[in-house]
Amino acid sequence: MSTLTIRLPDDTTERLRSLARSRGLSMNKLVEELSAYALAAWDTENHFRTLAATGDVSQALSILDRLDAQVRKKGSA
Prior knowledge:
Layout: H1 10-23, H2 27-54, H3 57-76
Organism: Candidatus Accumulibacter aalborgensis
Domain Ribbon-helix-helix protein CopG: 4-34
Protein name: Helix-turn-helix protein, CopG
């Protein structure tokens, strides 16, 4: 495990503390979760870029269709 020191504006720090408190999390856990979300988005973007580079448009569209269907299903629940 690594230790990371970051500099943030005071108002951002206070807002993050408030968010962590509202979720019942420590600042460390909140930053860990937010980092996981950011990395998941980055991994997804890289995956789609790789698919696009292979020229397999039908596979990419199929994945997007499945994701869209899941979102619609959750929205109607």
